[in-house]
Each structure stands twice: as C-alpha cells, then as structure tokens.
Design brief:
heterodimer, A: 10 residues, B: 214 residues, mainly alpha, 10 helices, 2% strand, globular, transmembrane (chain B), cytoplasmic vesicle (chain B), protein transport (chain B), ER lumen protein-retaining receptor (chain B)
Chain lengths: 10, 214
C-alpha cells in the first residue's frame, strides 16, 4: 500500500 | 534534506564523537551516565531494526549513518560497562531506567500511527529518546558539576533535536509533511535541555565550569 507512512528521518 | 536536518544530524554525530573521544582520551567515564548511553543504544536498535530485517545496500548514506549510530552507541556502552568499568560512577547514576522504558513502551502501544511491530518499535524509540537524557541530567544534579567536555557533549546532543524541530517547521511549510509523534516527543526532549542550555550559554561559553546548584 503506497500510502504506507514512511519515517524518512534518522 | 534541508539545512536544519543536515546540521541536526551533524550535531548528533558530533555529540557521539565528543563523548567517545572524552572516554577514550581520558580513559575514564566519570560524569557520564551509563544508563543514558544504554537507553540511546536501545533507541537506535529499535528505530533502525529494518537494517537487521533485510540486507541494505551500504552505498546509501542514510543506512551508513544508521550503522554508525548503532555501532558507536554500542561501543560507548562497552567502554563504560566493560573497558573503563572501574571509572563508572554507578552510585550517582541511580535514576531507575525502568521508570523511563516501561512508560515509553506502554505509550507506544497506546499512541501510534499504526499498530504493527515495526511501527510500535519506532514509536517506542521516539518516546524513549525524548527522556533518555534524564539519567545523565540526574547524575549531573547529584554530582553537582559537569566536566566541560561533557557539557559540550550535552550541548551537541540537545542541539540535534532542537535543529530537528526547525527541520519539521521547514517540512511542514514547504512539504506539508507532519510526523506528529516525532514532533511532540522532539519538543518534550528539547524542553528537558532548557535548564542545561541556560547554564551552558551563561557559564561554559565564558570558560567557567557548570556547578550546581547554579
């Protein structure tokens, strides 16, 4: 599911 | 990536490097809370668990940074609890870490973005990081002073999340990106440093040592 919330920070 | 996040990560790296150098050069971890370092190691491992779940191509700087954070924090714990154990100030490092870990774990199960293992671990890591510095601040209040190098470590460590707050403001404004859990925890984390920041700015910058009660 592309709406998957990605935590893109360290 | 924006300037605030870049300097935030650099400040975080600097903090880890300062502490490692202090312990390695002075061959002593006096004035350093082993519990805080353990909590940080737990934060990194639970937050970057994806590194262990599937192989990651190391050319990606973010993955390299994650590996540096995990290995540096584990190595710091090794120095404190094994190599220079004789200099570890266990009597003053007496804040109960369980009082920080259990509430963070409980809250992570209650307030999270998605109830799945990876997301709960990430949320736990965020909540734990917000309070992980408390044993270190507690130790300084017990010993009544902080070595200048330890003050620099704390300043870099506190500045990292303060810069992340600016990063979140930037990302909200330009990318309409909002990660509420990280923001709330980051604000709490930075507030915990306010007292120290005041002492650092008024004392250490003038070359004086931090002695409590101020």
């Amino acid at each position: 599911n592309d709406h998957e919330f990605k935590h893109d920070e360290l | 990536m924006n300037i605030f996040r870049l300097f935030g990560d650099l400040s975080h790296l600097a903090a880890i490097a300062i502490l490692l150098l202090k312990i390695w050069k002075t061959r002593s971890c006096a004035g350093v809370s082993g519990k805080t370092q353990l909590l940080f190691a737990v934060c990194f491992i639970t937050r970057y668990i994806d590194l262990f779940l599937h192989f990651v191509s190391l050319y990606n700087t973010e993955k390299v940074m994650k590996l540096i954070y995990i290995s540096a924090s584990v190595f710091t714990c090794y120095l404190i609890f094994f190599k220079f154990k004789a200099t570890y100030d266990g009597n003053h490092d007496s804040m109960r870490a369980e009082f920080l870990i259990v509430p963070a774990a409980g809250l992570a199960c209650l307030i999270n973005t998605k109830f799945d293992a990876i997301e709960i671990l990430w949320t736990f890591s965020i909540y734990l990081e917000a309070v992980a510095i408390l044993p270190q601040l507690f130790l300084i209040s017990k010993t009544g002073e902080a070595e200048t190098i330890t003050s620099h470590y704390l300043f870099a460590q506190g500045s990292y999340r303060a810069l992340y707050i600016l990063n979140w403001i930037y990302r909200y404004h330009y990318e309409s990106h909002v990660d509420t859990i990280a923001i709330v925890a980051g604000v709490v984390q930075t507030i915990l440093y306010c007292d120290f920041f005041y002492l650092y700015i008024t004392k250490v910058v003038k070359g004086q040592k931090i002695v409590l009660p101020a």
